[in-house]
């Protein structure tokens, strides 16, 4: 009976050992599988992490490039802004110069118009005076042997004859014109009269041209008889 119990114990021990070895073998295989799976997972994670790190590095580089581009663009914008401000200042300066020049041209136009009107008025007055002179002279032409010629410089040349009894056709002459101040100018007497300036002054004061002609003729006559 003891032998039977020992045999049964031995049998149970063998069965337990076999089961233990089987369990150990299965566990070892599972550990190996888990280790390989762990390695594969680590490898996959490492690859994914590497890819992700590269993408992040690329993103950082792109961000840095964008930052650099933005800096360059801002610098270029500032330069263009500065140039634009300078251009605006120059344009404003030119505009002010143009406005000043336009105002000056307008002033010159107005001044020219005034001078033109003044000259026109003066010329009209001169023509009227010359006409009056012509009429006055015509009254004495036959009596005084007087001839009037219009010569250069808007001058009237007065020529007397019948002064010298010995030479009645001998000419005695002088010139009259109006200056810019619209005063009479008497000149170019032939023969020369010393009192010509005095006659001119009296004519300017009295405006009596008939008396002036009479005095001139009288002065020439006195010269001949002396």
How does this structure look, described?
- With 226 residues, this protein is of the alpha+beta class.
- Helix content is 76%, strand content 12%.
- The protein has 3 helices and 4 strands.
- It has helices at 2-144, 196-206, 209-225, and strands at residues 146-151, 155-160, 172-178, 184-190.
- It has a 4-stranded antiparallel beta sheet, with helices on one face.
- Helix 1 crosses helix 3 (209-225) and helix 2 runs antiparallel to helix 3 (209-225).
- The chain is rod-shaped, with a radius of gyration of 66 Å.
- The model has no long low-confidence stretch (mean pLDDT 81).
Please provide a brief summary of the model.
With 226 residues, the protein is α+β, with helices and mostly antiparallel strands.
Give the percentage of residues in beta strands: 5-15%
Number of helices: 3
How would a textbook summarize the main sheet?
4 strands, antiparallel
Residue share in helices?
Answer: over 70%
Query: Pairing-aware structural class of the strands and helices?
Result: alpha+beta
Note the main attributes of this structure.
226 residues, 4-stranded antiparallel beta sheet, alpha+beta, 3 helices, 4 strands
Secondary structure blueprint with pairings:
Layout: H1 2-144, E1 146-151, E2 155-160, E3 172-178, E4 184-190, H2 196-206, H3 209-225
Antiparallel strand pairs: 1-2, 2-3, 3-4
Helix pairs in contact: 1-3, 2-3
């Amino acid at each position: 009976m003891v032998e039977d119990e020992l045999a049964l114990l031995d049998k149970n021990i063998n069965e337990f050992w076999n089961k233990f070895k089987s369990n150990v073998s299965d566990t070892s295989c599972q550990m190996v599988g888990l280790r390989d799976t762990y390695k594969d997972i680590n490898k996959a994670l490492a690859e994914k992490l590497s890819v992700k790190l590269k993408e992040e590095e690329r993103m950082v580089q792109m961000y840095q490039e964008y930052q650099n581009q933005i800096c360059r663009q801002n610098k270029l914008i500032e330069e263009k802004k500065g140039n634009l401000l300078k251009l605006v200042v120059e344009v404003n300066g030119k505009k002010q110069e143009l406005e000043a020049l336009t105002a000056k041209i307008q002033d010159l136009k107005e001044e020219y118009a005034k001078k033109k009107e003044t000259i026109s008025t003066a010329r009209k007055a001169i023509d009227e005076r010359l006409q009056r002179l012509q009429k006055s002279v015509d009254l004495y032409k036959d009596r005084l042997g007087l001839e009037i010629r219009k010569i250069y410089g808007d001058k009237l040349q007065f020529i007397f004859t019948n002064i010298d009894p010995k030479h009645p056709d001998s000419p005695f002459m002088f010139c009259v014109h109006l200056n810019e101040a619209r005063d009479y100018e008497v000149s170019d007497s032939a023969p020369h009269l010393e009192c010509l300036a005095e006659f001119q002054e009296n004519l300017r004061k009295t405006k009596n041209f008939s008396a002036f002609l009479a005095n001139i003729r009288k002065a020439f006559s006195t010269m001949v008889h002396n």
